Amino acid sequence: MPEGQLFTVVEEGSVTSPIGFSAGGLHCGLKKTDRHDLGAIVCEVPAAAAAVYTTNVFQAAPIKVTRESIASSGKLRAVIVNSGNANACTGAQGEADAYTMRNAFADKIGVAHDEVAVASTGVIGELLKMDRVLGGIEKLPAVLEAGEQGAEDFSQAILTTDLVKKTIGVELTIDGKKVRIGGAAKGSGMIHPNMATMLGFVTTDASIEPDALQKLLRQVTDLSFNMITVDGDTSTNDMLVAMASGLAGNQTLTESHPAWEAFKAALTHVCVHLAKAIARDGEGATKLVEVRVEGAVSDESAQAIAKTIIGSSLVKSAVFGADANWGRIIAAVGRAGQPVNPDTVDIALGDIVTLRQSSPVAFDEDAALDYLKGDTVVISVQLHMNQGKAVAWGCDLTYDYVRINAAYRT
């Protein structure tokens, strides 16, 4: 590893990169196509576990089950996931089905019921076809493997309207031991900060206690998954689960450990990478949009402003149309409900400055048009108030977004 570099990205890294983890996926019949729709990650030892969940009041049945499992001991041996059906707003039967799904998989792999987490994604308000789910569970252990194929099949099994799988792996050295962190996620629509219609799964072979992992996961989520938006809708099923096998052999990580910040940086990189991949793969999207806010009164204020800009339908539409309409950006800044000096705002599109000290700057419209036609657009806002800063990610708003969501159930 180059001197001064905290971690490196693992080629073809995934949830099976850390020691102790296997994964797999298959088609059990929940989706109308033959794409995978049932998957699992399994750890060979009880893994320290942590999770964050959607803030939507109508939380899907699998979230209740997963909360209960993790609360039991702070450890997990597995997580089972289905796509094609959210098992949300399905009442007592949906809850019973989520427990049945958990218990059946636990029995199949020979672990305690409360050592398994459950996640679901797909259409809201429809009961799971449990005969198909249970049939898939019977076959699932046979496809679990620690190699790339198992990770690939799992990544495919969790997708809904996603166009691409989202995976990553990194490694670093702690106490002379190689430690790896892997991740996989899904998400494309119904995406908004404070978790989104996304599922995220992070694995590591680092030794860390559940409470420390939980605290760290919340901090990292606020810098990553909680800073993305596609359409302003927060789903019923959002969940990010982290599992740590401890098999790397390092001294147990705590905030006082010399490598704590390095591990935090590596975990942040994993989650930011997955979050940006979700934003780039937004339903109908043609480009990734990144909003950088600096000079705010605090980081929290900068986050609120960045989220407001990235969530603006007018800003997103202008980016899609390659229209350098900075007026939509400053309007979003002004309605974010945060302290702003209306006389000191700078705005730039990439390197093209459009506003300085809240006054228009003459710029090359053709150059701006060419820049906005690219597949990545960076909007920079400098407030000149204090040191607060934040970055948010999203995508443009296109005709295809409406087409996809107008016929989601059909």
Automatic annotation (TrEMBL):
Quaternary structure, from the entry = Heterotetramer of two alpha and two beta chains.
Gene name per UniProt: argJ
Catalytic positions? Answer: 197
Its EC number(s): 2.3.1.35, 2.3.1.1
State its location(s). Answer: Cytoplasm
Which InterPro entries has this protein been placed in? Arg_biosynth_ArgJ, ArgJ-like_dom_sf, ArgJ_beta_C
Annotated site residues (Involved in the stabilization of negative charge on the oxyanion by the formation of the oxyanion hole) in this chain: 121-122
The catalytic activity, as recorded, is: L-glutamate + acetyl-CoA = N-acetyl-L-glutamate + CoA + H(+); N(2)-acetyl-L-ornithine + L-glutamate = N-acetyl-L-glutamate + L-ornithine
- Domain of life of the organism encoding this protein: Bacteria
The protein's UniProt keywords, in alphabetical order, are: Acyltransferase, Amino-acid biosynthesis, Arginine biosynthesis, Autocatalytic cleavage, Cytoplasm, Multifunctional enzyme, Transferase
Q: Where is this site: Cleavage?
A: 196-197
What is the protein's name according to its record? Arginine biosynthesis bifunctional protein ArgJ
Organism encoding this protein: Paenibacillus septentrionalis
